[in-house]
Amino acid sequence: MVVCIAESINIMSNTIGPAMKERNPKPIQEMAKVLADSGADYLDLNIGPARKGGDELMDWLVKTVQEVSDLPLSLDTTNPVAMEAGLKAIAKGRPLINSVSLQPERLEKGIPMVTKYNADVIGLLWGKEGMPRDANERAALAVDFIFQANEAGIATSDIWIDPIATPICVDINQVLSGLEFMSMLSEIAPEAKSTVGLSNISNGVPDDLRLYLNRTYLMMLMKYGLYSAIVDAYDKELIAIAKGERPEYLKLVHNIMDGNEPDPASLDKAELEHYKTTRVLLGKVLFSNSWLTT
Amino acid sequence: MAIEIPNAAYSGKIKEVPLGQEGKTITFGGETCYPFHLFEGAMPHPPKIAMEVYDRAPEEWPDTVMEPFADVAGDPVAWANKCIDSYGAEMIMLQLASIDPNAQNTSADEAAAIAKKVSDAVDVPLIVWGCTNVDKDTEVLKAVCEACEGKNVIIGPVQEGNYRAIGATAIGYKHTVVASTPIDINLAKQLNILLGNLNVPDDKLLIDPTTGALGYGLEYCYSVMERIRMAALTQEDERLQFPILANFAKEVWKTKEVKLSSAEAPLLGDQKKRGILMEAMTAQCVLLAGADILVMRHPEAISLVKEAIKDLMTTEEG
Smallest Cα–Cα separation from B164: which of B153, B174, B177? Predict the structure, then answer.
């Protein structure tokens, strides 16, 4: 079972963005209800960098959503003032801070809020020098993050490590190092939880094809005990996978990852899609937008 | 203890693509190993150089590279003949630079007539290159396909935005197409798949992964070219098993480093030698990354690179 954080309440959305700006609660509340009904365990409230008036917006947004939903909230902004305003406004559920990275200013302002507001925190493995280049750099950043958080009195079990998912069409090696790191995390920090911005994997891919990558990638991460994922909760099949309702596909994908390749001729349509997608995500076949049909 | 030389395990082969008119074709591709790894496999058809010819007299070239062509600029046929007769060109690339709507906006008919004249005048394989404007290239290159019917001209750039129109016309008139993508291996594969779906035959397709000049992003281009070859030869990626064309002369010869005079930039050394070496070094890099066809300009840079290819193709057995 993977805890599902629904990603859709996002200032970048064509419907939600304007609603946030106009302080129009209706589209946001409707979406919150649909996401809760779809099986979301958390709602992510993403207001972006929110440089101007971010605190007032996050305060309003938290209250607006909590009027119609009891789900815990993941507050998603790089503006620490907005983050704090959101944490203060939360009336129910243990909040999730999304996120604190290892950049000094983010760490310095983010960490104290975790203990002050009794929150969980996503530890984003983004270091002083930016994106980690491989699995070992991710491991070093994870150890560093957990150490600094522990020093500040945060329990390791309240930390959700995010190894950063990058688009398959940007650099397959980064996808592979993210997976490799996830296979190491349970040894590095057995108590730490994990999460990943799942839809990033399919960024840049035509919209109607993205869900295939998202679904199979989730199953691959589940092999390594992924605790939670920030997901497109409108994809019912994805939620079913996260809730453990597709054990046969899970087994297929994990077998391929272990090198036990099935005979493609023996697979039905959906199995074949997972087979082909696993192979491009493992770098065995070079990705192109036609990966499902070649 | 004897040292064991590690050998790469190859499972694929680059497709063989014959270029040029019937009876006078030169075949490219056929590699079964990484570039010049002749101890691991075969390179039956060594890389070759296509010399650039422009449809109109160029205006912004440094004198150091204009000088060899000063007497033929403005006459593409004479220019092409000079490349072949004086400099031993094995291929010609006719750059239809003037068709660009931001340049002289030469019409499709006029451009096609120029291409036809050059194709009638030369026996070596001829590449006809557009201006990269998707709409204008469609119009012009379709006209070129028709005018040069039966000559197996190499037509490019064919991009995501115009591959259908140009690809279909090229199939109709039996020309070869160059699939051009912006330094991205996934997009390169995708365009080749699309051209295959359109029924462009495998022996009528080349890859142009886009090549920058030395110091201007060459390392990215190198890396994409290298990865294309790795996927083709070690992952059996069938849609990447095509010869690669590297079109970099126009990138090299517009850089600041080749344009500054010796007096303006004494620390950069002699201007002429500098430009020649910039072009030759760019060529050398893409050769090692896997290019089969190098599009080049300066005769002295070309002779340096021809010599390098000859050296790299030499094996102990001779």
Answer: B177
Judged by DSSP in three states, B244 sits in strand
Kindly report, residue by residue over A251-278, the tens digit of the pLDDT. Answer: 999 999 999 999 999 999 999 999 999 9
Amino acid at site A108: E
Residues spanned by the domain of A58: 3-245
Selection from A142, A143, A147 nearest residue A124 by Cα: A142
Identify the CATH number of the domain in which residue A154 sits: 3.20.20.20
Considering its fold, how many domains does chain B have in total? 1
Summarised one tens digit per residue, pLDDT across range B222-232 is 999 999 999 99
Distance from CA of B235 to the nearest CA of A (A): 7
Tally of domains within chain A = 1
ω into B157 cis (within 30 of 0) = yes
The whole-angstrom separation of Cα B318 and Cα A31 is 73
Q: How many CB pairs under 8 A join A and B?
A: 28
**Residue B19 included in any domain:** no
CB A165 within 8 A of CB A131: no
3-state secondary structure of A208: helix
Domain annotation covers residue B317: no
Chain A residues touching residue B190 (CB < 8 angstroms)? 288-290
Q: What are phi and psi of B125, to 5 degrees?
A: -60, 140
Task: Give the DSSP H or E segment for A59.
Answer: helix A54-66
Domain that holds residue B285: 24-312
Strand pairing class (B154-158; A42-48): unpaired
A285 within some domain: no
Residues of B in contact with A285 (CB under 8 A): 235, 237
Specify the pLDDT at position B317: 63
The b-or-e profile of A145-175 (16+ CB within 10 A means b, else e) is bbebbeeeebeeebbbbbbbbbbbbeebebb
- In-domain check, residue A286: no
C-beta atoms surrounding A118 within 10 Å: 10
Q: C-alpha distances in angstroms, A164 versus A174, A187, B19?
A: 9, 19, 46
> Is-contact A158 A114, C-beta < 8 A?
yes
Residues 6 or more apart from A53 whose CB is under 8 A from it?
none
Helix (H) or strand (E) run with residue A176 in it: helix A172-188
Task: Report the CATH number that the domain containing residue B250 is assigned in CATH.
Answer: 3.20.20.20
CB-based contact (8 Å) between B235 and chain A? yes
Whether chain B has a CB inside 8 Å of the CB on A169: the answer is: yes
Q: Per-residue pLDDT averaged across B136-141, rounded?
A: 98
